[in-house]
From TrEMBL:
Database matches in PANTHER family: HTH-TYPE TRANSCRIPTIONAL REGULATOR LEUO-RELATED (PTHR30118), TRANSCRIPTIONAL REGULATORY PROTEIN (PTHR30118:SF15)
Superkingdom in the source lineage: Bacteria
Residues covered by the HTH lysR-type domain: 6-63
InterPro entries: LysR-type_TF, LysR_HTH_N, LysR_subst-bd, WH-like_DNA-bd_sf, WH_DNA-bd_sf
TM stretches of this protein: none
CDD domains xrefs: PBP2_LTTR_substrate (cd05466)
Organism from which the protein derives: Shewanella loihica (strain ATCC BAA-1088 / PV-4)
A Pfam family this chain is assigned to: LysR_substrate
Name of this chain's protein: Transcriptional regulator, LysR family
Annotated GO MF terms: DNA binding; DNA-binding transcription factor activity
Keyword Acyltransferase (UniProt): no
Keyword terms, alphabetized: DNA-binding, Transcription, Transcription regulation
Gene3D superfamilies named in the record: Periplasmic binding protein-like II, Winged helix-like DNA-binding domain superfamily/Winged helix DNA-binding domain
Length: 320
């Protein structure tokens, strides 16, 4: 065993293969070719005089030697990251990297704003993909295929780190300008008498909040449908007489630009009753989520910039 050939990059590849058990996924996570992964794996096998990862139809299987080595390799990588974080000065001006950020529809504009107004002036060599989240991204974040996501409640994996940048404190009614709903007091009984089109924010909920609370008091709500797209909801609101609700201040800002749509803040007492219908075992709010796979100084710096920037924009929109 020639331990002198063992370098940091080979350790990273060892650890990544042990998680993914697939050379293609390792190459995707580390931004390298499959042939480079195979070359490093050959070096590792030569160093330890063991096959380490046995090929099977469904992917790699760890050998006994690999299972024995894995805790030590994880510890070496951890110690290296501690040194890098604590003893190496990070300069965003020279930082490089490409980052994928996925978010619910309402957040994509604000994320792009934070990137272009706050992040790129400090770190001009970074590049980004900001995409609308349309499915469960938990596995992709866990494996490092997506760097960050901004969500309400759709995450369950214990390996994903979540940081709440704002709690849900207000709910906003959305309806066509001149709708009869604005002529009455905003009570549960009054709201339940109108057709409802849901803006599907909380994937943990079996039904819209208004319908859920209405059922507890024997009031039926005629739910016409649901969408997670605020542009689509705009058409439903403008083309019919349905009402809707949102908890997102950026949604309210968007609708302030749409001629013919009006929003209004619901009374705090009714908002509290509606939010109590959400029982997901954590504080209801908006979260930045990511995996602990990427421990680079650039990722760490970017995480803090995104968190601070989106949080500040949220409270600016709240008028605080």
């Amino acid at each position: 065993m020639n331990i002198d050939k063992l370098d940091y990059h080979s350790l990273i590849i060892f650890e990544s293969i042990s998680r993914h058990l697939n050379a293609g996924l390792v190459a995707n996570e580390l931004g390298m070719s499959i042939s480079s992964v195979s070359r490093h794996l050959g070096i590792l096998r030569d160093i330890f005089k063991d096959v380490l990862f046995i090929r099977r139809a469904q992917g790699f299987v760890l050998s006994d030697k690999a299972i024995q080595l894995l805790p030590y390799i994880k510890q070496l990588l951890h110690d290296y990251q501690v040194i890098k974080h604590n003893h190496i000065h990070f300069n965003p001006l020279t930082a490089r990297g490409h980052f994928k950020i996925y978010a619910y529809n309402e957040f994509t504009y604000v994320i792009n704003k934070v990137i272009h107004q706050y992040i790129l002036p400090q770190a001009p060599n970074l590049t980004f993909e900001v995409r609308t989240l349309s499915s469960d991204c938990s596995r992709a974040i866990e494996h490092g295929e997506i760097d960050f996501a901004v969500v309400y409640e759709r995450f369950k994996d214990h390996k994903i780190i979540c940081e709440m940048f704002s709690p849900t404190e207000e709910l906003f009614l959305i309806a066509k300008e001149g709708h009869a709903v604005f002529e009455d007091e905003f009570t549960l009984a009054n709201l339940c008498q109108y057709d409802y089109f849901a803006l599907d924010n909380y994937n943990d909920l079996p039904m819209p909040l208004l319908e859920q609370l209405g059922k507890t008091e024997g009031k039926a709500v005629n739910v016409l449908g649901a969408t997670d797209n605020i542009a689509a909801l705009s058409r439903h609101i403008l083309d019919g007489r349905a009402i809707s609700m949102s908890c997102n201040v950026f949604t309210r800002e968007f609708y302030s630009l749409i001629k013919g749509i009006r929003t209004a803040t619901l009374p705090s007492a009714l908002t509290e009753r509606l939010l109590k219908q959400i029982t997901v075992g954590r504080t209801v709010g908006n979260y930045l989520i990511y995996s602990e796979i990427n421990q680079s100084p650039t990722h760490h710096w970017l995480k803090q910039q995104l968190f601070n920037g989106i949080r500040d924009e949220w409270y600016l929109a709240m008028g605080r």
